[in-house]
Predict the structure.
Amino acid sequence: MTTPDSAATSRRFTSLVFGVVALVPLALITAWWLTGLVTLEGGNRIGLLGPLMVFAVTAVLWVASAITALVLALRSGARGAPVWVASIALGLVALCFVLSGITLTI
């Protein structure tokens, strides 16, 4: 039988895991995308399709993981890292959607 304190600790840990699972790949995709946009010399727009396709295929996974992390963090009453990691992951998802719009209008 789990105590309420151990259940909250388990939720915090699980929240942190889900947040990191969403944050790390999103950070890599965003860095790849921004590098492609910054070095867009000579109109090489084909190079921007790589990160767009990766994000398009995996966006639902990252959104679900980030929202799960945020819900678990808030339900456990966690402050600090779990909430911040989930919030940053959701921010990166929003940034990737903006980058998608920029890429498709170029």
Helices lie at 4-38, 49-76, 81-105. The chain has a mean pLDDT of 83. The CA atoms of residues 24 and 89 lie 8 Å apart. DSSP finds three helices and no strands in the chain.
